[in-house]
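Structure, all two chains, one model.
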Amino acid sequence: MEKIQITLNINDKSCEVMVYENDTLLEVLRDKLDLTGSKESCGEGACGSCTVHMDGKPVRSCLTLAMEAQGVKITTVEGLANGDELSDLQQSFIDHGAVQCGFCTPGMLMSADALLKENPRPDDKTIRKALAGNICRCTGYTKIVEAVAHAGNPKDHCLDCKSAK
Amino acid sequence: MKPFKYLSPTTVEKAISYYGEHSETAKFIAGGTDVIVKVKEGWMEPDYLISLKKIEEMGELHKNEATGELSIGALVTHATLEKSLMIQNEYPIIYDAVSNIGSLQVRNVGTIGGNLINAVPSADGAIPLIALDGVALLHGPSGERSAQVKDLFIAPYKTILKSGEILKKITIPTQAPNTGSAYIKFGRRAAMELPLIGIGVLLTLEDDMETCSKARICLGVAAPTPMRAFDAEKLLIGKKINKEILIEAGNIAADESKVRNSIRGKAWHRKEMIRVHVKRMGLKCLEIIKNNS
């Protein structure tokens, strides 16, 4: 099978890349562009560890063909930080102990980031619904939900927020 | 994943002509949340994937305010329906069903047309469209035809679509005044779940706000295909709707269902849940009608 050249807009950079037509976006991100933040776990759309944004909306990159990702704005977890400066959400994950093994974290961050852009002060139920498609086998979710609730507005919050500041 | 060529036509006609060139070696793909999994697993082995995503007319969601007819393009995503205030306000049964499909990442990509054509017994999207008397517009090599959404399904994973035919859109006829509708996806957990049973009820009341002039009781996972409980519906027509008669309708619907034991639940449990939720959804319809009057 022949490879073909496509252009993807990833984290505000235009990337020209040679792909097979059956390559998933996740394979291209990880294997061709060395953006290994997005993870493959189930590979069938159930676990959420491959979540990226397409035009700001969280989607499964393991179920998206690279061919289908042309002409849209793709954001991966590598695109959240501003250089070496973590986003408030990323910092909040660290402050609240929301990362254990870390495998689900990139997907969690991408789902949560999309939520916070739509709704900067989500309640507990809204956060849980937004993260319903992301599986974590370590944390029991509580710390993750706290981290999202307190991202960017640590003043009126929990002990973890206070000890972090 | 097996190798294939990816084709991306911009019109329905072009998509059908691509299919004509490659016939059985080609598969149509919309959101891809089912097709890609099937190709990865080797259950589907296409040489050509014909993506419908670039066909703009199939992505339109539009209500004709003059006639009251709602038109849902087959490529409209679950998330688009879920976020539409018009859907939330006027078609709560659609909102109830699509807002709990898969996860947000799946709803952002998965389409209502794909949900129908995939034709699983548990398709949440099918139940509201059947309850609303939806009509599917199909386009194939020999032109267009339409079919009631309730008649689309033949067996699990099997629809009436002929080779090379595409589901273009679903139209929902004008709803009568004093109509309420509701759906519940009943399962063990709230996230990433298929329903143990899916129950949709639609009721229209006469001007006295008591007597039922139209009833739809639609069940998912209650038979090999989504079904209507016709006897239960018949019971309600011309009667004053209250809790007692809804309980009776629930009992009849449970008897009409062809529920089975499966890995997700037992037949007796499904029957009990039909009884409970036909009543509850019926009461919810009444509440919606009263709130809107």
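Chain A touches chain B at residues 1, 20-22, 24, 43-46, 48, 51, 54, 57-60, 63-65, 67-68, 111, 114, 129-130, 132-135 (CB under 8 Å).
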